[in-house]
Design goal:
The chain has 476 residues and is of the alpha+beta class. The protein has 2 domains: 161 residues, Chloramphenicol acetyltransferase-like domain (Chloramphenicol Acetyltransferase); 225 residues, Chloramphenicol Acetyltransferase (2-Layer Sandwich), CATH 3.30.559. It is 39% helix and 21% strand. It contains 12 helices and 15 strands. The chain has a 6-stranded mixed sheet with strand order 5-6-7-2-13-12, with helices on both faces. Strands 8-15-14-11-9-10 form a 6-stranded mixed sheet, with helices on both faces. A 3-stranded antiparallel sheet has the order 1-4-3, with no helix packed on it. About 12% of the residues have low confidence.
């Protein structure tokens, strides 16, 4: 985050998510969780909503931006800033609802589908927590979380969860920090400071170039290395193959979930000398092949382009909000019917992309956006939003492998939610938690009515690879 002019500014990447947002494409991330029931209810059987609100409110001093809103610069003359929300009320952000009987998982997902399509109010801090009574026929409590992508990426979202939740069944309510919202800056002063900051950016860029020129040999080596990284982004097929996966996204959403033992992925990894990410991509590839086969779009030579976000967050940037992400574009040979051959091809591709540091090249291109004029940045974000560079997004987030608790209730399952782009009708997000890979499958409401094929395909693909791994081990 920038603090130029004394303000806590959005980075160019964070701001881009504001430009991308439309009614059809809300730009928030989140999760659907299932927790134990009993600790949330008092002796009279009433949900302890005020206790939950008090617990969450006490933790906000550890993540101050959850009490801030976005303030735009007048006339679009600079990137927006974060300011304290004068009317902050925890009740606007921590809410309670209930499922009608019988309270099935499908009903919980349908509720999440309805909540997810609602754009967050930019006049408020950009997050919500919805507690849900009556899940699993009343045996559990649901939790649906929404945070705007401007506020958090996947890794910082996990950090936030570990702040709002506890690592033990004994809840910790922090003493009040005496927070009083600071007044926002005068709009005219903000315009002047933003223009001054914008005028200094070219000088900063030129200064960086001069410093590079001072060490020409190092500069040439670094430039060549960066060139190879960026070049790997555009190697081969620039535009993704035309499929039903790339279509205009409507206002509806469809969710499906899958849970796979993390140990199964590790067994496959060890048998074939790959990574857990490779195993996940191969399994998703097998599942997408089933989906496209049902849509009569599958053929043996079909290779998809998959957008895989990569965190570039250093250890000293943990617990900092905002986005520090890059990406890799991974070829996914869905037309390959042999699961082992598909995995081998993915392993070779990801190893090559890592060798050429594709994510570094993408991060460099994203970094250049810090020097772009706000109007141009908005136009560029919308243009990228409309292009067909990829067929789908697959993002894998490492979560805690120990239980988390809320008001003493253990979180049993948690499925991530990531936003759809304007012409990407399918995302697959994976979060590992307590020895399980939790797959959150997000599709467009109209074109994603057959997502249960994808969910079943992920389970079957893992079973196929696990069977191949067992055969491999017996052969050794």
């Amino acid at each position: 985050m920038g603090t130029d002019g004394g303000y806590d500014r959005l980075s160019a990447l964070d701001e881009s998510f504001l430009h991308l947002e439309r009614a059809e494409t809300p730009m928030h991330v989140g999760a659907i969780a299932v927790l134990e029931r009993e600790p949330f209810f008092d002796a009279s059987g009433r949900f302890r909503l005020e206790a939950v609100r008090g617990l969450v409110a006490s933790r906000l001093q550890l993540i101050p931006r959850f009490r801030k809103r976005v303030m735009p610069v007048p006339f679009g003359q600079g990137r927006p800033i974060w300011v304290d929300h004068q009317g902050f009320d925890i009740a606007d952000h921590v809410r309670l609802t209930a499922l009608p009987a019988p309270g099935t998982r499908r009903q919980l997902l349908e509720l999440a589908e309805r909540l997810t399509v609602q754009v967050l109010d930019r006049a408020q801090p950009l997050w919500e927590l919805w507690f849900v009574e009556g899940v699993d026929r009343g045996r559990h409590v649901g939790l649906i979380h929404k945070s705007h992508h401007t506020l958090t990426d996947g890794i910082s979202g996990i950090d936030i969860a570990t702040v709002l939740l506890d690592f033990s069944a004994e809840p910790t309510v922090l003493a009040p920090d005496g927070w009083v919202p600071a007044p926002p800056p005068d709009p005219s002063r903000l315009v002047i400071d933003s223009v001054r900051e914008h005028l200094t950016r070219p000088a900063e860029l030129a200064g960086a170039a001069r410093r590079l020129a001072a060490g020409p040999r190092d500069a040439l080596a670094r430039t060549a290395d960066l060139g190879r990284s960026i070049g790997s982004l555009v190697d081969g097929q620039v535009v993704a193959p035309p499929l039903s996966l790339n279509a205009p996204v409507g206002r509806g959403r469809r969710f499906e979930t899958v849970k796979i033992p993390l140990e199964d992925a590790k067994t496959i990894r060890e048998a074939f000398g790959c990574t857990v990410n490779d195993v996940i991509l191969a399994s998703v590839g097998g599942a997408v092949a089933r989906l496209l086969g049902a849509r009569d779009e599958l053929h043996p030579e079909l290779v998809l382009k998959v957008f895989c976000p990569v965190s570039v967050r250093d250890d000293d940037q943990r617990m900092q909000l905002g986005n520090r992400i890059s990406a890799m574009l991974v070829p996914l040979p869905v037309g390959e019917p042999d699961p082992r051959a598909r995995l081998d091809a993915i392993r070779a591709s990801t190893a090559d992309l890592k060798e050429r540091r594709q994510a570094v090249g993408a991060a460099a291109l994203i970094g250049l956006s810090e020097y772009a004029a706000p109007t141009l940045l908005g136009l560029a974000a919308r243009a990228a939003h409309a292009q067909r560079f990829a067929n789908l997004i697959v993002t894998n987030l490492p979560g805690p492998q120990v239980p988390l608790f809320c008001l003493g209730a253990r979180m049993l399952e948690v499925y991530p939610i990531v936003p759809l782009s304007r012409n990407l009708t399918l995302n697959v997000a994976i979060l590992s938690y307590c020895g399980q890979l939790h797959f959150g499958i997000i599709g467009d409401g109209a074109s994603g009515r057959d997502l249960e094929l994808l969910a079943g395909g992920i389970e079957d693909s893992f079973a196929e690879l696990l069977g191949s791994a067992s055969t491999e081990r017996r052969a050794l």
